[in-house]
Amino acid sequence: MFDIGFSEIVVIGVVALVVIGPERLPKTARTVGLLFGRLQRYVSDVKADISREMELDELRKLQREMQGAAQEFEQSVKTAANDFSTGVRSVEQELNSTVSEAASSASSASATPALSDAKAAPAGEAGTKAPEQPALPGFEKI
Predict the structure, then answer these.
(1) CB of 110 closer than 8 Å to CB of 118
(2) What is d(CA 89, CA 36) in angstroms, rounded to the nearest whole number?
């Protein structure tokens, strides 16, 4: 802390001995030592507090960064889910339109003679009507 050599300490001790006197010098030295110890503890406490505050600031900054990354990830997941949902709906609409077209063509085909049914149906199924396909799970509403 201070750059004090041994010779300077000896000079300070001799001056203290002359000024304070031999009777009160030990008590004064003990008091100065206690005050110096308190000063050192206070300085170390202040350093520890500053260090903790710096770490806390770094943790807060890290927390903000993580929250931002989590929000970005959540947004990308929501976007992907919306895209997937849109794709599923379009496939479902295509399937429903295909089923309705097949059903309408099957109903118009039943009005034609049995010969057209035999041509349209595979061997062994002539004259039988294809059963309607059940709706896909989760798509009952649409």
Answers:
(1) no
(2) 79
